[in-house]
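hi! just following up on the protien thing from before. the input was this:
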Amino acid sequence: MNDTDLAAARTFHSRLVALLRVEFASLGAFLEALAEFDRRKLFRDLGHANLFAYLHKGLRLSRGAAHYRCAAAWLVQRFPEVLDPIRDGRLCFTTVAVLASVVTEGSLAAVLPRFYGLSKKEALELAAELKPRTVVPTRTVVTRVEAAGSPVVEGVESPRGGVTEPPKVHPGELWAPRTEGERTTIEPMTATASRMHVTVSREFLVLLKKAKAGQSHVQPGASDEELLTAALELLIEKQTRRKACVPAKVKREVVKRDQGKCQWNLADGGVCGATVRLEIDHVVPRGKGGRSTVENCRILCRAHDIEAARQVYGDAHMDLFTRCGTPGDAPLAREEVAAYGVGFRTPKLPDVPSRRIGAFSTRPRAAPLPALKNWR
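and the predicted 3d structure came back as:
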C-alpha cells in the first residue's frame, strides 16, 4: 500500500466515522419520538390498531424491523437510560430487543452495561444466563422438510405430482452446495445448554445410526450429542495432525499468547480479533528464512494470512492462488526454505521433477519430523 492509498483510506475512515455518529444520533432521536408516539397512542388516529401495525403497514418496514423497533420503543418508555448507549452505538436494535426480555427495574444498572457491544447471538447467550429456561427439551426430533418448489419426503407425493430426492452428501464430504432451505439455528436455553435445529439429509441419519451402533460397545446408550462430540473430537485431531507445520509445543504457546484470536494490526491500534478460520502464520515467512519459533509465529485469520503473503510476494503472484489464476501455473518462490524449527536441519535432497513447470525443480521438500517420545 502506497502513501496515496493510505491517505485515501484514512480520509474515508474519518468520513465513515462521522456518518456513523450521525446514524446513531438519528436512531436515538427516532426511538425517542417513537416512544412518545406510542405513549400517546397516536397510531390510532392514523387508523392502525397498534404500534407494530403502524410500523409494518404505515412506515412499510419488514415484520422483523417493526418488531425490533417496537421492542426498543417500549424499552425506552420504561427505561429512558438506554437512549444514551443507543445514541453512541453501544446498543443496537437486536440487542435492545433481547435486553427488553430480561431487564427489570432492580437489575437495570447491573445488566445494561453487559449488553454493550454484543451481537445478537452473544446477547441471547447472556439472556439465557440471566434468565434461564425452566424447561429445557433434551429429546431429538427428526422432521421432514420440503425443498423450494418440491418435497424431499420419500413416499409422499407432491401436489404437482412426483417424488423428488434430497440433495445427497456422500460419506467423507465435509462440504456440499447449500440450498435455500438448509440452515442451522442455535437457541441458547441456559448458561450451559443450547438447542440446535439443523437440517440434514437421509444419508446423515443413516450414518448417525451406524455410528451409534458401532459405538455401543464403548459408550452404551450414548446420546446423539455424546456421539457427535466424539466424532468432532476425532475430526479436530485429524485437522491438527494435517496442519502440523509448526511444532505442537510452539503452537500451544502461540495460541495461549494470542488468546486464539487473529493478531493482525488495525489502523486504530487494535487487532482483528477474529476467532474463525485461523492459521499459524510466520512473521518472517519460511520461504524467507523464518523459523517456527514462538517469537516468529502468530495467529491470523485466513483473510489476513493471505494479506500477509501479498505483502511479501506481491498481488500478481498471490492472485494466481486466490482468484481466477490456475495454481499449477503459478511461479514458485525461489528463496531458501527455512528450517522446520529450532534444532532441525533441512537435508539436501536430489532434484525432483516438477509438474508445475514440466522440468526439474530444485525446490527442497520439508524434512520429516524425528521420532520423539511423549510428543504432544
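The chain is about 40% helix and 10% strand.
Residues 113 and 155 are 54 Å apart (CA to CA).
cheers
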